[in-house]
Amino acid sequence: MMMPVDSLMKRATAEKVFPGAVLLVSKNDTILFFEAYGTTNLSEPAATTCHTLFDLASLTKPLATTLAIMKLIHGEKLQLGDPLGSVLPSFKGTEKERITIRHLLCHNSGLPDYRPYYLELGKLSPEERQDALRTSLVKEPLENPVGKVALYSDLGFMVLRWVVETISGRSLDRIVTEDIYHPLGLSTLGFADPGAPHFQNNVAATERCPWRNTLMQGQVHDENAWAVGGVEGHAGLFGTAADVNRLLWRLLAVYHGTSDPVLFDSALVQHFFTQQADSDRALGFDTPSPPHASCGDHYSAHSIGHLGFTGTSFWVDLDRSVAIILLTNRVHPSRDNIRIRAFRPELHNTIMETIGF
């Protein structure tokens, strides 16, 4: 049934769209297609398997930081309308004090998209870097008026990590692992832990990084996240396609009211999965942006997803209950390889046409 999809993935590997990949397609929580392709490391070739861990990059935003915020809201420790000035004292009296949690999740806080903080952080001792990064976030000038312009921002999710850790009193990696992943039985999803058994010889390599002068494998690719120890609100999460799929289906079941809302209630998940009126995004999740959406032409308007810089993505059609998870290491050995941009929509179109949409 899925032969056109298999052929397309093999062609992509042969044409060097990415060295390695895992593709998982599911509908109504039933896996329709789950295959691995290519190699995890071009220097020491090893076949990618369905158990290969990938640096999920910006999938960290929806699958870790956003869920941690949802957990705090579910526990009535935080509200979407809370302004930074009331949550983080460092922002009180600054131009950012009116930025709310909702603004940060919707990427319309006014913060810039990206800054190479790692260049200065790398000159400091590891113990000094987190405080230095947060000082930079407080000082960073706004690029747009608060709430007026949607601009995808790593910085906003760095601030959200700070919010999570201030309110919970625990690190972001601990709260998502202890309160979300482990209760759901997700053993491979988490921030980098090179000492863990499932990390040994089982991680797809990313870039041969000129700044760090090494091949990144088992350490976060994102330089800003790496500089502060590998845990940040915008990047740092690793995982397998199977665990990403399990997590998405647990959330989707709560969204549809067909599962016991152990972690979040249905209304909260429904609200987070809805595109917001003042943004082109849902709360922490992306939505299709026609006519050139990365999920192709066949996903309904009621869909959520996200892309990761390393070559990862997931898209869930909420109306049709279809999930497509594509994990690749397209930045290996260089981020200059951008062939995946044209490939993603072609793949999603082929899958949706093959299963009848």
Could you name the key traits of this structure?
single chain, 357 residues, alpha+beta, five-stranded antiparallel sheet, three-stranded antiparallel sheet, 12 helices, 34% helix, 14% strand, globular
Characterize the structure shown:
The protein has 357 residues and is of the alpha+beta class. The protein contains twelve helices and ten strands. A hairpin with a 2-residue loop joins strand 1 and strand 2. The two termini are 14 Å apart. The mean pLDDT is 96.
Number of strands: 10
What is the straight-line distance between the termini?
14 Å
Percent helix? 25-40%
Question: What is the structural class?
Answer: alpha+beta
> How would you sum up the major sheet?
5 strands, antiparallel
Task: Please work out how many helical segments DSSP would assign.
Answer: 12
Indicate the proportion of strand residues.
5-15%
> What is the residue-mean pLDDT, rounded to a whole number?
96
Radius of gyration using CA atoms only: 19 Å
Spatial arrangement of strands, main beta sheet: 2-1-10-9-8
| Low-confidence region ranges | none
* N to C succession of SSEs: HEEEHHHHHHHEEEHEHHEEEH
Based on Cα principal axes, name the global outline: globular
What's a quick, concise take on this entry?
The chain has about 350 residues and is an alpha+beta fold. The chain has 12 helices and 10 strands.
Task: Draw up the topology in text.
Elements lengths: L2 H12 L5 E8 L2 E9 L15 E4 L2 H15 L9 H4 L13 H6 L11 H4 L4 H14 L14 H15 L3 H10 L8 E2 L16 E2 L4 E2 L7 H5 L9 E3 L1 H15 L10 H7 L30 E6 L3 E6 L4 E7 L11 H15 L3
Antiparallel strand pairs: 1-2, 1-10, 3-7, 4-7, 5-6, 8-9, 9-10
Helix pairs in contact: 1-12, 2-7, 2-8, 10-11
